[in-house]
Design brief:
This protein is an alpha/beta fold and about 325 residues long. It has twelve helices and twelve strands. Helix 4 runs antiparallel to helix 5. Bound molecules: manganese (II) ion (MN).
Length: about 325
């Protein structure tokens, strides 16, 4: 996709909305705020930012994140000249934001999910990029945009968190080169690390320990899963955020090939987070309306936790692992 078109479309738009996905992570928020900073700096335009879920507390340090509007507080009858989705693999990931997306004169889709079906007018989807933040940064470079410290801090968060601190397979030379350039712009890696990872409350740490303790190991320990119920979160006085990193901990066990966490949702249903060292878990999650990456994916199921676990196990066991 021709990058110059992005310049033209931003220049010709008076009101712009940048949208992030449901249950936001560091990448969708980092790329949203990073793009916001870049548009402000290079086009002297202020855009609006949209979040469709509660903002995780730990990400409130991201520059300008507090300017983002929650979907409940935004005028849904508004017609934007331009809506830009970042890290949004499928349109339903922006929930009611779809109304605004469909009414917009122009739409742009900046992403790195291989499952992205390029649903916008302009699509910048790089399946090999570590993160949507990396794609935003690469666009900024190609378009010769100025990049300041504020933008670099935001985009660094996306690369850092989506590569699991430069540990996953998506840690490419380019991802590290960009991160290096961001450090040259003044990003403080230790400060970023502390903000993104050293954020557990006592309740969160204890609830994670409890969930690891009750993990179920199957098929010569190649499959491991654990469950999280609303009553567990109540007991430890923690919310759903605490499970971040839990699936990775289960995958980190030497015998594990596939790990997943099944979490009871507040409004019923069950959220599955899967990690793998062998099979394509995005494929399994897509059977239930989810998706993601080969070794890290998720889905939301409308069944009880126990029922969801059964269904997921059934699908995993269709593979040679
Ligand atoms: Mn991402």
């Amino acid at each position: 996709m021709e990058v110059a078109k992005l310049n033209d479309i931003i220049k010709s738009s008076k009101n712009i909305l940048i949208a992030s996905h449901i249950n936001p992570d560091g990448d969708t928020l980092g790329s949203m705020c990073g793009l916001y900073s870049l548009i402000k700096l290079n086009f002297k335009k202020k855009c609006e930012m949209l979040v469709v879920s509660k903002l995780p507390d730990k990400y409130t340090f991201i520059p300008n994140i507090k300017l983002a509007k929650h979907i409940e507080n935004i005028d849904k009858s508004r017609e934007y000249d331009l809506v830009i989705n970042v890290d949004v693999a499928a349109l339903d990931r922006i929930c009611d934001g779809v109304v605004l997306f469909e009414k917009a004169k122009n739409t742009v889709n900046i992403d790195h999910h291989k499952t992205n079906i390029e649903y916008a007018d302009l699509n910048y989807v790089e399946g090999d990029a570590s993160s949507a933040s990396e794609v935003v940064y690469s666009l900024a470079k190609k378009l010769n945009w100025k990049i300041d410290l504020e933008a670099a801090q935001c985009l660094y968060v996306g690369i850092l968190t989506d590569t699991g601190s430069f540990r996953f397979n998506n840690t490419t030379p380019r991802a590290m080169q960009y991160a290096s350039e961001m450090l040259q712009l003044g990003v403080d890696p230790n400060e970023m690390f502390k903000n993104c990872y050293e954020t557990y409350t006592k309740g969160m740490a204890l609830c994670q320990a409890y969930c690891v303790e009750k993990a179920v190991f199957l098929d010569d320990d190649k499959i491991v899963y654990t469950t999280v119920f609303k009553k567990d979160m109540e007991k430890y006085n923690t919310d759903e955020e605490f499970t971040e990193g839990l699936t990775e901990r289960l995958r980190a066990i030497t015998s594990t090939k596939v790990a997943f966490v099944a979490k009871e949702m507040k409004n019923g249903g069950c959220k599955i987070s899967m990690r793998s060292k062998s099979i394509d878990v995005a494929e399994i999650c897509s059977l239930f309306g989810g998706g993601g990456h080969k070794f890290a994916a998720g889905c939301t199921m409308k069944y009880s936790v126990d029922e969801s676990v059964k269904k997921i196990l059934h699908e995993i066991r269709k593979y040679e692992i």
